[in-house]
Write a structure and sequence with these properties.
Layout lengths: L14 H15 L17 H15 L11 E4 L9 H14 L3 E2 L8 E21 L2 E2 L6 E2 L2 E20 L11 E14 L2 E7 H10 L50
Parallel strand pairs: 1-2, 1-3
Antiparallel strand pairs: 3-6, 4-5, 6-7, 7-8
Helix pairs in contact: 2-3
Length: about 260
């Protein structure tokens, strides 16, 4: 080892230099660090409310004998129908009429039968209850203790009452007494010691039937594996049936002409 003279010195590492270099390296990496943001929104009406009502409408119309209109031209007059989801009510009546073998007339003059639907009540109601200690105010103070819920239960009801009558557009005489059909649906959310919701009711049945999956808590969970592709109805909706079950014949398609030069 070479001896160190009195004019030489051993240079020790400068810690401030290493810190400066590390800071510069970090600053050069900052532009490469990305960030992401997401935006969520809610519709004015919840899907739960809409499914409750549409299911109630379906059940109400399922009690109507549209098969009696098979082979007849029917005009559906909606002037007395005032309700939420009016479009779904009218579309469902048209659907059931066509499925029963009836025909939709463009106006009353060209119809054999006129149907007048009306709403006796289409809407939702809520009921809340819980087991626990209710909110209370402390005597002599402005303080209050919040309620303590050991078990809480929320139920939302959907009601659809639809009236229908059929008459002859030429004479104005009714074909029958007609009537009203009422259906009720409900959706339950239960919380136990703050855990939940444990769900049951029509909305859960509709959703699980659609995706083919049952969550242990009653909520629609994320699908994985083979069930990930089952996000639609398990039975497909066929708009065109085979010829033996069709009500109407499809129009023939003219052949595609080719131009030769």
């Amino acid at each position: 080892m070479r001896p160190v003279s009195k004019f030489e010195f051993i240079e020790e590492p400068d810690m401030s230099t290493h810190t400066l270099r590390a800071s510069i390296s970090l600053l050069t990496l900052l532009p490469m660090i990305g960030c992401a943001s997401s935006r969520t929104s809610e519709t004015a009406r919840t899907a739960t409310e809409q499914v409750l009502l549409s299911t109630a409408i379906d059940r109400s119309l399922n009690n109507v004998s549209f098969e009696q209109l098979q082979g007849r031209k029917v005009f559906i007059d909606d002037k007395y129908l005032e309700s939420v989801d009016k479009g779904y009510v009218m579309g469902s009546i048209r659907h059931k009429l066509l499925a029963a073998g009836g025909q939709i007339a463009k106006d009353a003059d060209s119809a054999d039968v006129v149907i007048e639907p009306r709403s006796g009540g289409i809407g939702t109601d809520n009921e809340d209850s819980f087991v626990g200690i209710p909110k209370m105010s402390l005597p002599g103070t402005a303080l209050s203790l919040p309620d303590v819920k050991f078990l809480s239960h929320n139920t939302q009801y959907g009601t659809a009452k639809i009236g229908l009558i059929a008459y002859d557009p030429k004479t104005g005489e009714s074909y029958g007494l007609g009537g009203q059909s009422t259906a009720l649906t409900k959706h339950d959310d239960t919380y136990v010691l703050g855990m939940g919701p444990f769900r049951s009711g029509a909305v859960r049945q509709e959703r699980e039937s659609a995706i083919g999956f049952e969550s242990p808590t009653g909520a629609v969970a994320t699908l994985t594996g083979q069930k990930a592709g089952r996000i639609a109805r398990r039975s497909p909706v066929n708009l065109i049936d085979d010829p033996s079950t069709r009500v109407a014949e499809l129009p023939s398609v003219p052949p595609v002409s080719t131009i030769t030069r």
